[in-house]
Amino acid sequence: MRNPATATTPATKLTTTTTRNNSGAKTPCCIKVGLKRGPWTPEEDELLASYIKREGEGRWRTLPKRAGLLRCGKSCRLRWMNYLRPSVKRGQIAPDEEDLILRLHRLLGNRWSLIAGRIPGRTDNEIKNYWNTHLSKKLINQGIDPRTHKPLNPQQSPSDLKAPSSSKANRGAATIPKPNNPSSSSLEETSSGQITTHKENEYFQSNNTLHQYQTEAAIAHGFTSLLNCEDSGIEMRSNQDQGISNEEDEDINYCTDDVFSSFLNSLINEEAFANQNQMQQQTNVTAHADALVSVTATTFGLVQGWESPIMSSNFNQNDPNRVNDHVN
DNA sequence: AAGCTCAACAACCGCCGGGTT
DNA sequence: AAACCCGGCGGTTGTTGAGCT
């Protein structure tokens, strides 16, 4: 792995970054003009780390000035979060971490922060990079669409799958519309746990990301239903989901981090357990369709995933160090 | 040795939601 | 209620080094 701290910085340049105010007009992100960009030097790292050690995290916008850094706050935050934080684990992604990433990705889609939140010591950026450079290719090589986790359409060229809409021109159309701050509100992290029906309808109509949000909303919906002790009449979502009805709107509930966490863990572990059994029984590829998807599909009406051959190959239920044991 | 290509990953960008004033 | 600030997210880009010709 390259060490950016030792990287030379020929391209380091002085510039300003911008952000938008509510009216859409660009305003300087950093008051100070002439901020540094590019790779961080060891000296900058030291300044930042020692400052945060002294004063703690937060107030990122003013932190650079207080710490004596010629960086914008965002850059400082990113550097700290992705590299300098003591809890950040460096080095190779272990097989069981990879396995967990795959399963979480199928559950959550490109929700890197959510995925990272369940893999101790790994950052969203690291997982995102690992996915884009390793796992998505691995899946494509196995004939699996990394976006949907379904078998590739034979007519679909691998280049079509490369990166999810990388062009900026496409961003508006192809970028996943966020479901009511999904990363923090809908499924995790905050206590609100609310899913907005309107928003769900919006993103369910997004062709490019249908599966992803079917998954998410189905989980969320099933989850809120579970919380509600709803009877067995959980409304199944088909592959051509039509959105959420007003009646469903009434199901919108609040969930706690702990309960969602347990729920997610149960899905993950159900799958792991099923995979182990499947390996023991040496069943065919069809049987490899893992239990997570089975459970999810049964409970929430989801489609099945297909990458179990990769996933189960890495998984050892008896491994005392397996990541699942850390997930809590 | 030089030039080229590609993989890896750190860093940047634009956008958004929540909180505060 | 509106404006603003802040932190966070996901997508994308830029830089570097390794491998190949």
From TrEMBL:
Pfam families: Myb_DNA-binding (PF00249). Residues 1-23, 144-195 are annotated as: Disordered. It is found in: Nucleus. InterPro entries: Homeodomain-like_sf, Myb_dom, Myb_TF_plants, SANT/Myb. Keywords: DNA-binding, Nucleus, Repeat, Transcription, Transcription regulation. SMART domains: SANT. This is Transcription repressor MYB5-like. It comes from Herrania umbratica. The lineage of its organism: Eukaryota, Viridiplantae, Streptophyta, Embryophyta, Tracheophyta. The gene is LOC110426493.
